[in-house]
Amino acid sequence: MAPEYVSDGLLSIKSDVFSFGVLLLEIISGKRSSGFQHNGEFYNLLEYAWELWKDRRSNEFIDQSFGDDDEMEELMKYLAVALLCVQEKTIDRPTMPDVVAILSSDGITLPEPK
């Protein structure tokens, strides 16, 4: 759930963006966001994704069943979009029309997720 909903009970159009980002992270990683376990410790999937992103080890987050290296660049784009969608502050998240534009465009420069 979006942080603003959990803390204040507020919903907005950016709450849906947050949920989309979580779903995208689950698809990319092949893991559920709740009850995610790594090396015997329970993690929040979002925290794990952010940790790997900050450490420049994002390729470790992507499910290996995706296969070849040709898909890796596209998957990294999806991961960046997902992280933009799950940023804590609603103002930092893109709108869904922005997300659609990013996903349907090639060569677009993405802002760095915060």
Automatic annotation (TrEMBL):
UniProt xrefs under Gene3D superfamilies: Transferase(Phosphotransferase) domain 1 (1.10.510.10)
Annotated Pfam families: PK_Tyr_Ser-Thr (PF07714)
GO molecular function: ATP binding; protein kinase activity
Domain Protein kinase: 1-108
InterPro entries: Kinase-like_dom_sf (IPR011009), Prot_kinase_dom (IPR000719), Ser-Thr/Tyr_kinase_cat_dom (IPR001245)
PANTHER family for the chain: PROMASTIGOTE SURFACE ANTIGEN PROTEIN PSA, PROTEIN KINASE DOMAIN-CONTAINING PROTEIN
Protein name as catalogued: Protein kinase domain-containing protein
Transmembrane segments: none
Organism ancestry: Eukaryota, Viridiplantae, Streptophyta, Embryophyta, Tracheophyta
